[in-house]
Amino acid sequence: MNADTQLAVPKGPFKAADAGESAGHPHGVRATARIRATYNGRVTTLPQMHSDGPFHLRRMRTGGRGATVGIIGAMSAPLGGDRLALDITAEDRAELEVTTAAATLALRGPTTAPATYDVRLTAGEGASLRWLPRPLISAAGSNLHQTCTVDLAATARLLLREEQLLGRADEKSGHLVSRIRVHRAGRPLLDQHTAYGDPEPGWDGPALLDGHRAVGQLLLVEPEMDAEHDPVLLRNGTHDGCAVLAPLAGGPALLATAVAPTSSALRELLDEALAHALGA
Amino acid sequence: MSRTALLLLADGRFPAGGHAHSGGVEAAIAHTSVHDLDSLEAFCRGRLHTTGLTTAGLAAAAAAGCDPLLLDDAADARTPVPALRAVARRLGRQMMRAARATFPSPELDRVAAARPRGAHQPVVQGLAARAAGLAPVDAARAAAYESVGGPTTAAVRLLSLDPLGASRLLARLSTEIDAVALAAADAADRVATEGLGALPSASAPLLDITAQQHAAWTVRLFAS
């Protein structure tokens, strides 16, 4: 009886530790990093900088009234089963730019379950938010569900760039599912869902990518933009990559959509699109 | 009501103007990415699971009684290039005329008055299905079928493909068309609890880019 009691005692904490580990390991990392920028009447300050899991946040040195935050990858992520989130807010009149120091590499994890990566961007009245991460690479065997949810006040400005590379050099694409939803003053501005890699039907065919392995978007929301913009076509063929820059229906916004054979060709198209957008 | 109404609504001869549009296949043929029945099937499969799913969701939601003007905004947010928005509204206007004559309803009249330049075509198609007494999944099926039927017919003309092979292609896609229609109707069902974000927004980058390129052509056989 005494022996039973002794045996029973260590079971409690052992079980708890076991449960804690199973939440962290076989099922992946759970992490939410948060950045909140405010304007104090003179400059933008960062009252919240919460690093978590693979996201190490660092304030970059800048002049002027804006703030720039770099996200440095502190571990290899996302792997299958990970649950990652980034919550970025520029409050009224704050100017915030957020970048990542390196490409984000989605890799096959210990499970074939999808990893999730949810980015939430919020910009208040008169705020300016720039989200310019390095490309996301969907490595062979990886499975990632990504969302980007943007909520803009009527007078907020936004610049967002997303680049996706399907597979590292000459390998098969992983499975990459993304959705971007942008609301401005409570109304829908952009809602797009893309799904690439096996087992998505038709993903590599002539309607979607036609063999291209780099795809990206650039979104500029600028309340003071002139109402009328003619669409700009970059490259008229499709084989070496091509892009279109065009106004959205629901507000003063331009969206560039680009596909290209390589990441450098994609960046070139998006840079050209940005030059047109800013010059327009 | 009569299921035959679905055949009427999905018939290529329904006078809604669809025959003048290639669903992007004319541009894909010009870029030589569609050149035979196999590449046409790949094109259609990609279009069905992107544009087809998205339009089927909008049509199902309109047929289920969701606010058509909010659906029209949702369709705008899902159509990032002006060329495709213009096509969707022009086709919506033409379908509105045919639908009001065929299945008169006060709901169609209200949307026609609120969007005189045309609401997005799948929204009108869903309202027409509703006026005909069809279920949301029927509206979704008509939209999904049209998303591949249009390009297939256009490609037969543009490439002089074997029409029997094209018909076989559509038959091969039919179980996928059914699955897309069911997924779209299921999403429309969830709008009541989850909002319009429950509706699919599947998109295809090359369809968007090449539609805008095609709109700038001076000589073309199809309007889109």
UniProtKB/TrEMBL annotation, chain B:
Species, as recorded: Streptomyces natalensis ATCC 27448
Primary localization: cytoplasm
Complexes and interactors: UreD, UreF and UreG form a complex that acts as a GTP-hydrolysis-dependent molecular chaperone, activating the urease apoprotein by helping to assemble the nickel containing metallocenter of UreC. The UreE protein probably delivers the nickel.
Annotated gene: ureF
Entry keywords, A to Z: Chaperone, Cytoplasm, Nickel insertion
A single cellular component GO annotation: cytoplasm
Keyword Nucleus: no
Family according to the record: Belongs to the UreF family.
Protein name: Urease accessory protein UreF
